[in-house]
Amino acid sequence: MNIGNVFVEQQSNSLEPTVLANIRIVMVDTSHSGNIGAAARAMKTMGLNRLVLVTPKQFPSDEAIAMSSGATDVLEHAQVVDSLEQAVSDCGFVVGASARSRNLPWPLVNPREMAQQVLALPTNTNVAVVLGRERSGLTNEELARCHCHVNIPANPDYSSLNVAAAVQVLCYELRMSAQLATGEEKPLWGVEWDQPLASSAQLEGLFEHWQKLLVDIDFLDPTNPRTLMSKVRRLFLRAQPDEVEANILRGMLSHIDKQLRKP
Ligand code: SAH
Q1: Domain containing 153 — which CATH number?
Q2: Measuring from atom 15 of ligand 1, which residue has the nearest CA?
Q3: How far is ligand 1, taken at its centre, from the CA of residue 186, in Å?
Q4: pLDDT at 1 over 90
Q5: Which residue of 120, 136, 162, 263 lies most exposed, with the fewest beta carbons within 10 A?
Q6: Does residue 195 lie in a domain region?
């Protein structure tokens, strides 16, 4: 499956900020199909059209079509996938939207800061903005796949927005940033980067490799892993390695493996 290629067919209107075409909204385990339709509408009003649905309870559905209020093209092109992993594997930047703060602090931004960070990414970086279940949000494991978390500032006593309303707020900020961006906008790390960011799939391969090695050298106890791998993930995700850097790290791990296996 290659989500990126599928979307190439959907040429966006040339007057639209092209950066928005690289951003996908990912909805995880949505239980009310009306919310999917409302999210499609929210996206289309802001000029986004890539919707990825991870195991929705019901899709396609008449309720989604009704709630999309004419944004049926977004629904028709929506991708349905079996896992969050599939939804974000080719993304160089993954943002998780969360109403709650988690035990392990993770880089946290508000929607405006999120949009600014997205706009500063190297050109053509695929971006995913991930939203959680209506009842329980995103799991810790899902949030640990994200480079950063975005929280929509809200009434502390009543801070959980309807998921489609959250999509609207996030897409609005992305659109505002895209419209305001000028050629003078400062890119990430101050220069136009020479390598694409490592994809989510590449990073997952790296984390798996680390984990295996750490178990092999008895640094990580698989029966009592604690938060070690979450902290390793957080460190690497915060660094936003590019493809070459991620390959170097994989190469180092392979050589350590090889040395360990020498008699
Ligand atoms: N009861 C859930 C909230 C689910 S709301 C919980 O406590 O986590 C469904 C989704 O909408 C969330 O997973 C999140 O992606 C998004 N969302 C709702 N309110 C939000 C907020 N204030 N900031 C960021 N995302 C929010």
Answers
A1: 3.40.1280.10
A2: 131
A3: 30
A4: no
A5: 263
A6: no
pLDDT tens per residue, range 117-145: 999 999 899 999 999 999 999 999 999 99
pLDDT in tens, 44-58: 999 999 999 999 999
219: domain CATH number? 1.10.8.590
Q: Is the CB of 153 under 6 A from ligand 1?
A: no
Domain limits for position 252: 200-260
> If DSSP codes are grouped into helix, strand and coil, which group holds residue 17?
coil
CB within 8 Å of 249: residues ≥ 6 apart? 206, 241
Angle 14-53-84 from CA coordinates, rounded to 5°: 110
Same-domain pairing of 207 and 157:
no
148 C-beta closer than 6 A to ligand 1? no
Please tell me whether residue 205 adopts helix, strand or coil conformation. helix
Task: Specify the pairing of strand 108-109 against strand 148-150.
Answer: parallel
Is residue 134 lining ligand 1, measured as CB closer than 6 Å?
Answer: yes
Residue 250 lies in a domain: yes
Q: Tell me if the bond preceding 241 is cis, omega within 30° of 0.
A: no
Question: How far is residue 152's CA from residue 165's CA, in Å, rounded to a whole number?
Answer: 11
Structure confidence by residue, pLDDT tens digits, 202-229: 999 999 999 999 999 999 999 999 999 9
**Shared domain check, 169 and 211:** no
Is pTM, for the whole model, over 0.90?
A: no
